Every structure is written in structure tokens, then in C-alpha cells.
């Protein structure tokens, strides 16, 4: 058979067959005196098998392993790996659809492309027009996207998010937008914020769920988002919980 004939027989293109020659999947057959390749039925069987395996999702390298001699991998082993990979893809797709469902269920204008755990946390928070609360949501979304925090943190913050009295703290922070950095309201507000949030939650924010130190420059960039007096409140809060995390780390090493 010539290349066009075997291509039609096995349902491949002549270009694909030439590529299989190039990558070593199919040895080039002998040529006839007229220069045309002469393909055998054995070549057709091999090409048909290549086609079936690639349709299953195997890469050409995996197909080469399957078609190799006894030193190659068994077909059952390769297919088991393929099945496991497809199962992972299905799980990932299911998780993406779950996240999309959360976004689609949110009221118009309130959908946030965040993890389901954070979306659930934000949904529990009372509605507010507080600029400080909005900024806090943005910071949580950033940490969520970076993978620095996770479901453990959101579980710790659940009760805080649902507490209406926390809105009063945000509003008091809003009132410091035009205040001096030594305003006497700064200290009491920082102390109440520290008391309102579980120490473990802020330790997770400042250190990350993995127990790593904060990313260099993050705190400075965070404080730059606020007016001077507000930044001083946030700095004191973050400092208090960073100290708590450091103390916990030291105890864990003792």
C-alpha cells in the first residue's frame, strides 16, 4: 500500500503518518523502485492502534511506551494513569462549576470571583456602605487568590462576619479618614478590633495558613491603602497579631 492508501484505510492523514515516522512511532517502510513507500498490513495494524490510543487521550510519548517491546510499559498501566488523570479533571471541573454556581446565585452586582469558602463568608456579612469594610473585602479577596489563606481562616472569621456590631468598628475606622495620625481614638479602636477577631484568624492572615512569614512589602502596601490615622489603627492591629503569631511559633519550638 502507498501512504495515501494506508491513510484512508486507518482513518489518518498522510501528514500524521509522516509525523509518526518523524517521532519514531512507525518505522519507515522500504521504498519501491519508483521511490514510493510500500506499507504492509502490519503497518496498518500499528497505525490503527496508534489512532485508537491517541483518541483515548494518550500522548505520543505514552503511545510509544505502549507500543515498545517488553521493556516498555504495559497498556493497562498507562490506561490506569489516564483514567486517574481524567478523574482529576472531572473533579476540577466539578469544583469550577460549584464556584460558578455560587457566583450565579449572588445578587446582581455582588458576585465576587473568589473561592466558595470566601464567598460563603462574605454572604454572611451584613450589607454596608462602609469604605473600610469594602477595602477589607478586597484584601481578603487578594489573600484568597494568592492562596495565602484558606477555609480554616474563613471558619474562624465566620462569627465575626455575621456580627452586626463589627459594622460599628468599620464605621469608626471610616471616621478617621481625615484625622491626624496621633488622634486619641486610634488606640481604643485598635484594641477593640484586636479583641473582636480571634487571634488565630489574624495569625493566619499575617503568617499564612502554612505558617510562613508575611510576604516582604505586603504590610507597607496594605497600609498605603488607608488615610494616615486609619493606617495607624491597621498597623497596630497587624502588629498585635503578628506578635501573637511570633509568640505561638516560639512556644511551638520549645
Structural commentary:
The relative contact order is 0.06. The protein is mainly alpha-helical and 254 residues long. The chain has helices spanning 3-10, 14-23, 41-55, 60-67, 75-105, 116-124, 131-146, 151-161, 165-174, 186-196, 199-207, 218-223, 228-253. The model is unreliable at 207-212 (pLDDT under 50). Helix 6 (116-124) packs parallel to helix 8, helix 9 (165-174) runs antiparallel to helix 10 (186-196) and helix 10 (186-196) packs across helix 13 (228-253). The termini are far apart. The chain contains 13 helices and no strands.
List the helices and strands and how they pair.
Elements: H1 3-10, H2 14-23, H3 41-55, H4 60-67, H5 75-105, H6 116-124, H7 131-146, H8 151-161, H9 165-174, H10 186-196, H11 199-207, H12 218-223, H13 228-253
Helix pairs in contact: 1-3, 6-8, 8-11, 9-10, 10-13, 11-13
Looking at this protein, list some descriptive labels.
single chain, mainly alpha, 254 residues
Amino acid at each position: 500500500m502507498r501512504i495515501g492508501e494506508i491513510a484512508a484505510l486507518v482513518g489518518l492523514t498522510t501528514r500524521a503518518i509522516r509525523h509518526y515516522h518523524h517521532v519514531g512511532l512507525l518505522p519507515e517502510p522500504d521504498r519501491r523502485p519508483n521511490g514510493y513507500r510500500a506499507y504492509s498490513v502490519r503497518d496498518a495494524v500499528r497505525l490503527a492502534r496508534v489512532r485508537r490510543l491517541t483518541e483515548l487521550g494518550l500522548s505520543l510519548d505514552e503511545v510509544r511506551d505502549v507500543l515498545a517491546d517488553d521493556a516498555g510499559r504495559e497498556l493497562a498501566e498507562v490506561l490506569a494513569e489516564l483514567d486517574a488523570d481524567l478523574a482529576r479533571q472531572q473533579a476540577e471541573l466539578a469544583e469550577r462549576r460549584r464556584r460558578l454556581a455560587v457566583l450565579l446565585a449572588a445578587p446582581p452586582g455582588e458576585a465576587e470571583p473568589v473561592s466558595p469558602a470566601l464567598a460563603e463568608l462574605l454572604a454572611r456579612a451584613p450589607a454596608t456602605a462602609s469604605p473600610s469594610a469594602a477595602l477589607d473585602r478586597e484584601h481578603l479577596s487578594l489573600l484568597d487568590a494568592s492562596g495565602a489563606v484558606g477555609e480554616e481562616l474563613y471558619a474562624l472569621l465566620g462569627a465575626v462576619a455575621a456580627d452586626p456590631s463589627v459594622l460599628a468598628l468599620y464605621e469608626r475606622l471610616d471616621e478617621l479618614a481625615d484625622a491626624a495620625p496621633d488622634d486619641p481614638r486610634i488606640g481604643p479602636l485598635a484594641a477593640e478590633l484586636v479583641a473582636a477577631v480571634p487571634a488565630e484568624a489574624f495569625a493566619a492572615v499575617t503568617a499564612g495558613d502554612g505558617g510562613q512569614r508575611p510576604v516582604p512589602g505586603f504590610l507597607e502596601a496594605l497600609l498605603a491603602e488607608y488615610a494616615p490615622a486609619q493606617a495607624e489603627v491597621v498597623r497596630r492591629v497587624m502588629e498585635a497579631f503578628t506578635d501573637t503569631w511570633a509568640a505561638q511559633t516560639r512556644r511551638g519550638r520549645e
